[in-house]
Amino acid sequence: MTDQPAGRNDSCYRHPDRQSFILCQRCGRTICTECQTPAAVGVHCPECVREQRAQFQANRRASGAPSGLTVARRRFAMLDQKATTVIIAVSVVVWLLDVLSGGIVNSWLSYWTPLVGTQPWRLVTGLFVHSSIFHIGFNMLAVFIFGRILENLLGTWRFVALYFLAGLGGDLAVSLLTPGTPVVGASGAIFGLFAAFFVIQRSLGYNAVQLLVIMGLNLVVGFLPGTNISWQAHVGGIVLGFVTGFVFSKTRNIRQRRLQIGLLVAEAVLLIAGIGAAYVSIGGYAI
């Protein structure tokens, strides 16, 4: 028995130098392994795959089926940690925009006490800007780990309240201790998550001493010379984390929901009032 010479039907129609005996199940053209896409039966060539996808999209539009955006919205609605996902996504987008703008975004959004009176968005946006890839990397890792735990434990809106109250606590501490220093990053809010998690775990009867040690070690790092870390924001975040965690632990009963909301609102009012007082005390100048 002799070998048959390779003809055109024995070679991939997209790569004539490659011999193959595999046919597209749909059109019958010869395709090599690189050009094959597995199908329910056999394999399909790239052209048939594109035609099928185009027909599928056309059928979806004609039948009124949900669009890709609608499907994405439904999938987002099914997430258990929506706020954590949004915080990380927004922080990453802001960091990328800052890199592309050469630092302009940080100058617009960073927290700086002399400007909060005329640019109040800085109270919140400072939590989403970061100075380097390592800065955002470590912070978002912490948000990913503890954010998911706390959001599952507290629910989305309580978690959001905790995050931003702790962030405002960091802002207030900076305004009182170093009002002339611009600050970026979510560290204050993250330390608030640590503190709140400790209080809640203790209230539930769990041993959380290890978390307290980790929090203390990270806090000490901020005091080391040359680290360029705002320990003031960390301290402020920890204090508000403890306070907010205590509020949550003492108002767990559904009948205390109004009391819980009232206490959280009171925290926010006092924090903003304190920042406002610090702003006024330094003259509210802008450089």
TrEMBL record:
<dbReference type="GO" id="GO:0008233">
    <property type="term" value="F:peptidase activity"/>
</dbReference>
<feature type="transmembrane region" description="Helical">
    <location>
        <begin position="207"/>
        <end position="225"/>
    </location>
</feature>
<dbReference type="GO" id="GO:0006508">
    <property type="term" value="P:proteolysis"/>
</dbReference>
<dbReference type="InterPro" id="IPR050925">
    <property type="entry name" value="Rhomboid_protease_S54"/>
</dbReference>
<keyword id="KW-0378">Hydrolase</keyword>
<feature type="transmembrane region" description="Helical">
    <location>
        <begin position="231"/>
        <end position="249"/>
    </location>
</feature>
<keyword id="KW-0472">Membrane</keyword>
<feature type="transmembrane region" description="Helical">
    <location>
        <begin position="83"/>
        <end position="105"/>
    </location>
</feature>
<comment type="similarity">
    <text>Belongs to the peptidase S54 family.</text>
</comment>
<feature type="domain" description="Peptidase S54 rhomboid">
    <location>
        <begin position="118"/>
        <end position="250"/>
    </location>
</feature>
<feature type="transmembrane region" description="Helical">
    <location>
        <begin position="125"/>
        <end position="147"/>
    </location>
</feature>
<keyword id="KW-1133">Transmembrane helix</keyword>
<keyword id="KW-0812">Transmembrane</keyword>
<dbReference type="Pfam" id="PF01694">
    <property type="entry name" value="Rhomboid"/>
</dbReference>
<dbReference type="InterPro" id="IPR035952">
    <property type="entry name" value="Rhomboid-like_sf"/>
</dbReference>
<feature type="transmembrane region" description="Helical">
    <location>
        <begin position="183"/>
        <end position="200"/>
    </location>
</feature>
<protein>
    <submittedName>
        <fullName>Rhomboid family intramembrane serine protease</fullName>
        <ecNumber>3.4.21.-</ecNumber>
    </submittedName>
</protein>
<feature type="transmembrane region" description="Helical">
    <location>
        <begin position="261"/>
        <end position="282"/>
    </location>
</feature>
<dbReference type="InterPro" id="IPR022764">
    <property type="entry name" value="Peptidase_S54_rhomboid_dom"/>
</dbReference>
<feature type="transmembrane region" description="Helical">
    <location>
        <begin position="159"/>
        <end position="177"/>
    </location>
</feature>
<keyword id="KW-0645">Protease</keyword>
